[in-house]
Amino acid sequence: MLAAIIFFLSEKNYIADLSDNSVLDDFLSIFIQNSRNLNMKKALIIVDVQNDFCEGGALAVPEANEVIPYINLLMEENEYDQIVLTQDWHPSDHKSFASNNNRKVGESIILNGVPQFMWPDHCVQGTFGAEFHKDLNRDKVTHIIQKGKNTEIDSYSGFQDNNHFMKTGLDDFLKYHEIQLLEVVGLAMDYCVKFTCTDAVANGYITCLHFNGTKAVNVKPENGRDAIYEMIQKGVTILG
């Protein structure tokens, strides 16, 4: 059913056209309310809303700051059993940094058997860039997951590293608290958000992405669009 959603690329965003499918209209409008009626425990996962990914940061995502008021409103208007922040937390010698490989930003290498895009230095442990953005309301946050701490491998997903060798502890935390439904927001849609969402589905969670609570870095112009398609195909529900 979800595969029937068609996304159109406009100048600045994607628009879900559900007007020809009343079943999908109803599903998306009452999905969250039904989860409450079923006493389904839910968590909000806020991915990497850190200074380096926001305006003026070392790896700024276009229009990233626009999602922060939306995320704050979600926390204000909804009841979540858990609210979890993920945080990129790289050592300064991390192998995903172009500067540590004598490479240029934008090149790709094979790092421990998996493709690795070469990024500018970002979210280095203990730096301002790694801190959460000051405008993000953290009053209701219950847990923080740090990722990307292993020098040898990157970790886009909030659940595990890119090589699927080491877990972050997020799945254990959510299952301990009997969470069944995840709502996901944050940065960036085509990398850390996408992989967090698809891993959430793989770990058995009903997974929803708030489209208005995320932005794509779009290394290539089509990356954000392709990320939406991939998430839908893997069972992620896209909420406007």
Structure, explained:
The protein is α/β, with parallel strands linked by helices. It has one domain: Isochorismatase-like (Rossmann fold, 3-Layer(aba) Sandwich). Helix content is 25%, strand content 22%. The protein is built from five helices and ten strands; from the N terminus they run ββαβαββββαβαβαβ. A six-stranded parallel beta sheet has the order 7-4-3-8-9-10. A two-stranded antiparallel sheet has the order 1-2. Strands 5-6 form a two-stranded antiparallel ribbon. Strand 5 and strand 6 form a beta hairpin. The protein starts with 5 loop residues before the first strand and ends with a strand. The N terminus is likely disordered.
**Molecular shape:** globular
- Radius of gyration over alpha carbons? 17 Å
Task: Give the oligomer, counting copies of the same chain as homo and different chains as hetero.
Answer: single chain
CATH-assigned fold name: Rossmann fold
Number of helices: 5
- Intertermini distance: 17 Å
Largest sheet: 6 strands, parallel
Structural class, by secondary structure, is alpha/beta
**Would you tell me the overall average pLDDT?**
88
Total DSSP E strands = 10
Query: From N to C, what is the helix and strand string?
Result: EEHEHEEEEHEHEHE
Q: What are the segments in which pLDDT stays under 50 over at least 5 consecutive residues?
A: 1-26
Report the CATH C-level class: Alpha Beta
Name the strands of the widest sheet in spatial order.
7-4-3-8-9-10
Strand content: 15-25%
Question: How many domains make up the coordinates?
Answer: 1
Helix content percent band: 10-25%
| CATH architecture descriptor name | 3-Layer(aba) Sandwich
Under CATH, the homologous superfamily reads Isochorismatase-like
